[in-house]
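Blinded run. Sample ID left blank on purpose so nobody reads anything into the name before looking at the predicted structure. Input follows.
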Amino acid sequence: MIARGNLPDIVDVEEIVHFAVAPIYHRRFITHEPLTTQDTLRAAGAAPAAARAGAI
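Blinded prediction complete.
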C-alpha cells in the first residue's frame, strides 16, 4: 500500500497490523463475543483508513 502511494511514507506498517488485529483479538479472547466476517472486514478497513487520516 505504501509503495503504491496509498499511504504516507511515514506510516508504520507494523502499527497498521496491530490496529487491525486488536479489535479481533479483543472480541475473541477478552470479551468472548462471537466474531463474524463483518467484524473482521470492519477491522481490516479501519486500519488503513486511520493511517490515511494520520491517526496511526
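Unblinding after everyone has recorded impressions. The chain is about 60% helix and 0% strand.
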